[in-house]
Amino acid sequence: MHSASGERSLSILGDRTTYNRFLLLVAGLGGLLYGVDVGIVAGALPYLEATSGLNAGQLSIVVASVLLGSVISTLFAGLLADWMGRKWLMFVSGLVFVISIPTIALSHGYGPLVLGRLLQGVSAGLIGVVVPLYLAECLSASSRGKGTGIFQWLLTLGIVAAALIGMYFSIRVEQVAKLGDAGKLFAFKESAWRRIFWVSLPPGLLFAIGSVLVAESPRWLFRRGRRVDAHAALLRSRTTEQAECELREMEETAAAEKAKTLTGAQVKESLLRRKYVIPFILACLILAANQATGINSIIAYNTNILLQSGLSDVQAHWGYVIFTIVNFLMTIGGVVLVDRKGRKFLLSLGTAGIILSLIGTGVFFRGTERLRVDARVPLERLLTPDQKLSFVYDNRTAESLLRSSGEVGQVIDNRATSLSIIYSYGDFRAATRVARSDDAAAKPIEITRDSCVPGNKVIAFFSNPFGDLQKARSAPLKIENALITPVPSARIGWLVAVTLFIFVAFYAIGPGVCVWLALSELMPTRIRSNGMSIALLLNQAVSTTIAAIFLPTVGRLGYAAMFFGFASCTVIYFITAAVFLPETKGKTLEEIEEHFEGMSKKSNLATA
Fold first, then answer.
1. Looking at the domain assignment, is residue 12 inside a domain?
2. Rounded distance, CA 516 to CA 137, Å?
C-alpha cells in the first residue's frame, strides 16, 4: 500500500522511468550546487579584494570559511541523516545554501561575509555526505554507478558554471574600465561580486524544491519500522517483483543482525589489530595528501594566481574557464577508466603528473620572484604617529620605493610590479593584499591595528595561541617585509596557465575520481562509518588550514614556495598510492578485508 505522500509524488512525476530520471536530476543538482560552492568565490574574489577593504588575512578567512563550515556540518551529517531522514536533510542543505546567498550579497562588512560563507560550507558538507548516501540507498544496483557518476560529473560542471559567471563579469569590468572613470569602475566592481553570488541562487532553489518531491530512502524508512512506507518508496523506482525482493533482503539482514545480538555471536576484536589500523592509516594519509596537493586553494585563488603570473583580468578569467573545462572533461575520462585501469594505477599516474606540473608552475614564478626587492626601510618612513600606514601603490610610488632601495631596486625599475607587505603588532602578523602598480583602479593599501590584531580572545587563540592580545593592542606597527616583485610577461602568464591545466587534468583523472571510491573500499565494515568520519575530518581540516594560510604565505614567501610545498606533499601521496595502496578494482569488500587480514596473519607468523 502506497503512502499518501508517495501517491501525490507519483501523480506529479509519472511512471518509474520518469521518476528515476528525476531522482538522478535532483542528485545531479546536489553535485552542481557542491561545485558552485567550491568555485563561485574564484570569480568574485578579485572584485571583493578590490572594493571590500579586507586585508589578505581576512580574505583568506572568507575563502576558508566555506571549508570550516563543511568541517562542522560533516561531523554531524551522519547523525542528522539518521535523525531526520535523507530526503529532508537534502532539503535543509539546499535551504541553507539559499539563505547564504542574500547573507553574502547584501553584506557590508567582514562578519556577514564570513557568516554567509560558513553557511555555504555547511550546505556543501551536508550535500557531500547525504546525496551519495541517498543514492546508494535509493538506486538499484544497476543504476548506482550511473548515479554517483552523474553527481561527480555535475559537480565539475558546477565549477565550470561558476567560472563562466566570473568570465561574464570580467568582460563587463573591462568594458567599464575603458571609459577611464575610476569611480564608475570601482562601483561596478562593487556590484559585480555581489551579482556573481546572486546568479548562483537558482540551483539552490531547484535542489531544495526537488528534494521535497523525491521519496525518502526506503532503507531509512525500514530501519524506522515503517515497512509499508519503505515498500511504497521502493515501488517508485522498481517493479513490484524487485521491490518485494529487496524488502525481503532488508528483513533477512535485520533478522540476522538481531539473531547475532541475542546469541552473543558478534566477536569483539581489538581495533588496534593490523587489519583495522593499516587501512585506517592509509585512508588518513590519502585524504590529507589529497588536500595537500593544493587543489581547493588553486581552484579558489585561480584567477588571482593567473593575474599575478602576468595575465590581464580578462585573460585570467578565460584561463580559469579553461581550467574548469579541463577538470570537467578529464573527470569524464576518469570515470570511464576507473573500472578498466584500476584505482592504484590512476592514483599513481595522477599524482606523478601533479608533481611535475606543480614544479613547473613554481619554476615559472621563481623566475620573477627571485628579483624581489624588500622596500621595508623606505616604507617605515611613511608611518604615521598613530601607527598606521596608507598609500596608493601606483607606478610613481613603485618607482620611488625602488630607487630608495638602491641598485637592487633599479634592476626592476620601469616595469610593472606587485607589492605585498607583511606587518605585525606585537605577536600578531598579517599580510596586505597583493597590489599591482599598473592597476589604475586600485584602492589605497591601508594598514591599521584592526586589520591585524584580533577583536577577542577566541579569535586571538586561533590566530596565535601563544600571542599576548593585551600587549598587541598597544604595540607599535612593525613592517617585517615589503616585497616588490616584477609582474611577469603575458607569455609567462600563459605558461603558468598551461601548467595549471596539466595539474587539474592529472588531478581529475586520478585523485579526483578515485580517492573517495578507493577510501570507501579500503575501510573494513566494522569501522567504516566512524573511520571515514575521522579521515574526512582530517581531510577538511588540512584543506581549511591551507586556504587560511595561502595568501599570507604567498605574501611572505611567494607563489614559487607555495607550489614547491604542494609538490613535496604530493610526493608522499605518490609513494602511498604506488607502494602501499592495494588494488581494489574488481574485488568485493570482503576480499579487500581478507587482504589486510592476510597481512595481519603473516605478521603474526613472522613474530612467532
1. no
2. 17
**Is the pTM above the cut of 0.70?**
no
Q: Which SS3 state, helix, strand or coil, does residue 382 take?
A: coil
Q: Are residues 432 and 498 in the same domain?
A: no
Domain count within the chain: 3
Kindly state whether residues 47 and 166 are assigned to the same domain: yes
Q: Which amino acid makes up residue 293? A: T
Biggest distance spanned by C-alpha atoms of the chain: 87
pLDDT in tens, 171-199: 888 788 888 888 888 888 888 888 888 88
Output the CA angle 303-308-313, nearest 5 degrees: 50
Enumerate residues 6+ apart whose C-beta is below 8 A from 344.
Answer: 577, 578, 581, 582, 583, 584, 585
Give the strand pairing for 373-374 and 445-447.
unpaired
Question: Using CA atoms, how far apart are residues 152 and 229, in angstroms rounded to an integer?
Answer: 30
Phi then psi for residue 422, to 5 deg, are: -105, 125
Determine the Cα–Cα distance for residues 582 and 278; give it in Å rounded to an integer. 11
Q: Taking phi first (over 0 means left), then psi (-120 to 50 degrees means alpha), and beta for anything else, what does residue 586 get? A: left
Q: Rounded to whole angstroms, how far apart are CA atoms 214 and 230?
A: 13
DSSP code string of 45-101: HHHHHHHS---HHHHHHHHHHHHHHHHHHHHHHHHHHHHH-HHHHHHHHHHHHHHHH
* The C-alpha cell that represents 29 in the structure block: 543538482
Element containing residue 478 per DSSP (H, E): strand 477-486
* Secondary structure element (H or E) that encloses residue 131, with its range: helix 110-138
Is residue 78 a part of any domain in this protein? yes
pLDDT tens digits along 451-482: 788 777 766 765 676 788 889 889 999 888 88
Do 332 and 500 form a contact (C-beta atoms < 8 A)? no
Is residue 421 within 8 Å of residue 479, measured between CB atoms? yes
Task: Give the CB-side neighbour count of residue 73, counting CA atoms within 13 A.
Answer: 26
344-389 pLDDT tens trace: 888 999 999 999 999 999 999 888 878 888 888 888 888 888 888 8
d(CA 143, CA 263): 37
pLDDT tens digit string along 329-338? Answer: 888 888 778 7
Q: Domain range for residue 401?
A: 373-411+416-486
Cβ distance 426 to 453 under 8 Å? yes
The answer to the question of residue 237 being in a domain is no
- CATH number, domain containing residue 169: 1.20.1250.20
